[in-house]
Specification:
Layout: H1 2-18, E1 24-29, H2 33-47, E2 50-55, H3 60-67, E3 75-78, H4 81-89, E4 93-94, H5 99-104, E5 117-129, E6 152-153, H6 160-187, H7 197-205, E7 211-215, H8 216-223, H9 230-236, E8 238-241, E9 252-260, H10 266-277, H11 279-289, E10 292-293, H12 302-306, H13 317-321, H14 324-333
C-alpha cells in the first residue's frame, strides 16, 4: 500500500502541471500499461496530442473522489464493468453524446445515459486440461458438481473477474441459489484461491487441477509470450471451454472508459475516446491483446477464433453490475477465499 501511495504521489505531480497545457490527455487506468500504451502512442503520432497515464490495480476511483473538481484526470479506464458503474454512480463521470462513439459501440455495451462505454470484451471461461478432461462442453452450474471435487483452481473470489461471474449468477438465479452454487464450487477447489488467471493455467499444466476459471485473452497472451516461453506450454496444455446452458450463456465482462466529470481537457479527451472506439484501435486491441472487439465491424484475431464459437450471455451488463455488492457478500458468507 505504501509503495502504491508513493508511486501515485510521484506520478501525480506532472499530471497536475500538464492538466492546463492544452494538448495533453491525462488518464487514470486500471488497465495495465502494456495493454494500452501502444494505442496511446499511435494516437499521439496521428494527432500530436500527448497522453499521460497513471496506472494502479486499485484506488483510482477513491483518488478521483478525493481530488474532486481539481482532479487532473480526463479519462478513467477500467478492466471491468463494475468499476465503470461505480464511477458513474458516484458522480465521477459525465455523459458523452458523440455520434462517432455511439456508432462504434453497441447500446448493450454502454451506459443508457452514455456515462460509460465498453472498449473490449473478454469471456470468463473454463481452462480444461487437454490430457485429463475428455468433455468439450461445460456449464457454470456443473462447476459445483461433486465429480470435480479437488479438481478446480481459481483466483480469489473477490477479484473483479470472479465477482462479475458471481453477479451474473445472482442476476440469473437469485442470491440463495447462487450461494449454494458458490459453496459447491468452493468444495471442489484443489487449493486456496490465489494468483492470476495465468497461474491457474500453470496449475492445470502442472497437474494441480483439471479445470480453472480464467479470462479468454490470457490464453492468447500466454500462447504468444516470447519473453517467458514456458507460458506457451501452459497455453498448449489447456482447451478453452465456453460455459453455456439454457439458463445462461458465457459470462462476458468488458474493459471500458468514462470521461471524468471534471476533465480539464474535455475536447481532446473525447478525441481519444473516439479513437479508442474506432475500427483501427479495435483491431489493434483484437490482434495484440486477444480480446473481443466491441465494435461489431471488427473481427476477432485468428487465435481467438480458433477457440471456437462463443455465445455471450444476453443479460445487460448494467443488470449484472447491480449485483456486485451482493456478490462480495456471498464470497464472504461462504468463506470462499479461506
Amino acid at each position: 500500500m505504501l509503495r502504491y501511495l508513493l508511486a501515485t504521489c510521484v506520478l501525480a505531480l506532472p499530471l497536475v502541471g500538464t492538466a492546463q497545457a492544452g494538448e495533453v490527455v491525462n488518464i487514470y487506468s486500471y488497465r495495465q500499461p502494456e495493454l494500452v500504451q501502444p494505442l496511446f502512442d499511435i494516437f499521439t503520432k496521428e494527432t500530436g496530442i500527448e497522453v499521460r497515464m497513471i496506472y494502479a490495480e486499485k484506488g483510482l476511483i477513491e483518488r478521483l473522489q478525493q481530488e474532486g473538481p481539481l482532479s487532473p484526470a480526463d479519462i478513467l479506464l477500467t478492466s471491468d464493468v463494475g468499476r465503470l458503474v461505480e464511477a458513474a454512480n458516484d458522480g465521477l463521470a459525465q455523459p458523452v453524446d458523440d455520434a462517432a462513439i455511439l456508432a462504434n459501440i453497441p447500446a448493450t455495451l454502454r451506459d443508457a445515459g452514455n456515462q460509460w462505454f465498453g472498449l473490449t470484451m473478454r469471456a470468463r471461461v473454463v481452462y480444461a486440461s487437454k490430457e485429463r478432461v475428455a468433455q468439450n462442453a461445460i456449464t457454470y452450474e456443473e462447476l459445483a458438481d461433486p465429480k470435480w471435487k479437488g479438481k478446480i483452481c481459481t483466483r480469489p473470489g473477490d477479484h473483479p473477474y470472479n465477482l462479475g461471474l458471481i453477479a451474473a449468477m445472482i442476476a440469473k438465479r437469485g442470491e440463495a441459489d447462487t450461494k449454494t452454487w458458490l459453496a459447491g464450487l468452493k468444495a471442489n477447489l484443489a487449493n486456496k484461491p490465489s494468483g492470476t488467471d495465468r497461474s491457474q493455467a500453470k496449475s492445470v499444466y502442472a497437474g494441480e487441477c483439471d479445470l480453472a476459471l480464467g479470462n479468454t485473452y490470457y490464453v492468447g497472451l500466454m500462447a504468444s509470450d516470447e519473453k517467458e516461453p514456458e507460458q506457451k506450454e501452459w497455453a498448449k496444455s489447456i482447451k478453452v471451454l465456453f460455459p453455456s446452458s439454457p439458463a445462461m450463456g458465457t459470462n462476458v465482462n468488458i474493459s471500458g472508459m468514462v470521461l471524468t466529470k471534471s476533465a480539464p481537457d474535455k475536447a481532446n479527451a473525447i478525441k481519444l475516446m473516439q479513437y479508442l472506439s474506432s475500427p483501427e484501435a479495435q483491431k489493434i486491441y483484437a490482434d495484440g491483446n486477444f480480446e473481443y472487439p466491441v465494435n461489431p465491424a471488427v473481427q476477432a484475431s485468428d487465435i481467438v477464433e480458433s477457440w471456437g464459437t462463443m455465445t455471450p450471455d444476453p443479460m445487460p451488463l448494467t443488470e449484472i453490475a447491480k449485483n456486485q455488492a451482493a456478490a462480495v457478500r456471498l464470497v464472504d458468507e461462504v468463506g470462499f477465499n479461506n
